[in-house]
Amino acid sequence: MGVTRSKDASTLMRERYVEIWPKILDPWTQYLIAARSAFDGDMDKMLVLAVIGAMSLQDKGFPLRDPAPHSYDDLLSPNATALEPRPINIESIALFTGIPRESVRRKVLDLMARKWVARTAQGYLVVLPAAAVDLEALSAQLFRLIGQINSAIDDSMKV
Fold this sequence. Notes:
This is HTH crp-type domain-containing protein. It is built from eight helices and two strands; from the N terminus they run ααααααββαα.
């Protein structure tokens, strides 16, 4: 007898942990290793970029000049531009993540040197399209991981 997809993933994972977790542990671990490498061994730097990115995209639409489809490939387009961000700065990132303010400052400076992050005229931080371009392989690995998680959940529902 199968399980309905409407059952939330958290409940399904708890009920079928031994069946699902081994199928996703290796790809998840491989993704974390690749992410660590992409961020020079500094997972906090990845977290800082993710927080800035989340704040850039949240409630703001999509970072393109024209209303093209909202695909990942659109981010890689030469027409992609940074959004006008929500008010986010080093202090707010430090408070949100628990990473010390001075550490966040250094990580932001490194992200700016890579041209992945910039400051607006108001001093707010925004992720630049170059981050999507430079991290394309890592993003592709994340998309595969999400697919593997989805497949593992689907497979467990057939039992």
